[in-house]
Amino acid sequence: DAMVIQNPRYQVTQFGKPVTLSCSQTLNHNVMYWYQQKSSQAPKLLFHYYDKDFNNEADTPDNFQSRRPNTSFCFLDIRSPGLGDAAMYLCATSSPREGFNEQFFGPGTRLTVL
Amino acid sequence: DQQVKQNSPSLSVQEGRISILNCDYTNSMFDYFLWYKKYPAEGPTFLISISSIKDKNEDGRFTVFLNKSAKHLSLHIVPSQPGDSAVYFCAASTPMDSSYKLIFGSGTRLLVRP
Fold first, then answer.
1. DSSP 3-state assignment of A56?
2. Residue B3: predicted pLDDT
3. Residues of chain A positioned with their CB less than 8 A from the CB of B30
4. What pLDDT does A100 receive?
5. Helix and strand element counts for chain B (H, E)
6. Are A83 and A15 in contact (CB under 8 A)?
7. Of chain B residues 56-75, which have a CB less than 8 A from chain A?
8. CA–CA separation, B44 vs B27, rounded Å?
9. What does the CA dihedral B87, B88, B94, B97 come to, rounded to 10 degrees?
10. What's the pLDDT score for residue A2?
11. What is the predicted pLDDT for the residue at B12?
């Protein structure tokens, strides 16, 4: 089945220790998104890639970076995690060229910062 | 400044009855609205959507109603089933570059009692 895969599902890191979350997709969608969701809050868009073009949301902290080496993979790098970065991180894909507004989500990575 | 609001954090209904989940928005430029369903430990999955030029869309037991003058939409589930118990997110779509941005509400947790 075509899908969005996120690894790891659970990640524990120490305060200030860089961490990388990964996302892969078999849908061949050209747009990939990263969202942050804190407990009982709405998912918040951090940035997205349209093909290789990176688009950062204005309020995304510089501490968050992303890489997309190819169509299938996208990474979220947190350079110096703080306690406030503990959250669920969701990756999503879409294919606007096909006329869909729908985004397809992975299961998420829950990040704990000690 | 929340552009999409789900004011009821939780809802409990009896199996077989109607579930009505509500969502309000502030931006009249949103062109599409979507509902996502999220089970624990899974990513949100697309449920149903409606274009801003329509006032109703139906898919099986799920119907979404849009009241543009009130900037309000609702999701009706009839009849409700225990398997419908999940968190439901309302999202509004707005164009950005060549793709779409989704702005989510904070979700409503639905419990369907057997």
1. strand
2. 92
3. none
4. 63
5. 0, 11
6. yes
7. none
8. 23
9. 40
10. 65
11. 98
Cβ neighbours of B106 in A, within 8 Å? 40-42
User: Which tokens in the block code for residue B37?
Assistant: 């369903």
Which of B2, B43, B46 has its CB closest to that of A106? Answer: B43
Instruction: Identify residue A34 by its one-letter amino acid code.
Output: W
B71: left (phi over 0), alpha (psi -120 to 50) or beta: left
pLDDT at A99: 61
Give CA torsion, residues A109, B74, B5, A23, to 10 deg.
20
pLDDT tens digit string along B47-80?
999 999 999 999 999 999 999 999 999 999 999 9
Q: Select the residue from B90, B99, B101, B104 to test the A interface by mutation, using most A Cβ atoms within 10 A.
A: B99
- The single-letter DSSP state of residue B29 is T
Q: Mutation target for A interface from B102, B106, B109: give the one with most A CBs within 10 A.
A: B102
Report which secondary-structure segment, H or E, holds A92. strand A87-94
Residues of B with Cβ-Cβ distance to A58 under 8 angstroms:
none
A43/B104 CB distance under 8 A: yes
CA distances to A22, A84, B28, B88 from A4, rounded to whole Å, are 11, 26, 32, 20
Question: Which residues in chain B are closer than 8 Å to A40, comparing Cβ atoms?
Answer: 9, 106-107
Q: Give the pLDDT of chain A (114 residues) as one tens digit per residue.
A: 669 999 999 999 999 999 999 999 999 999 999 999 998 899 999 999 999 999 999 999 999 999 999 999 999 999 999 999 999 999 999 987 666 678 999 999 999 999
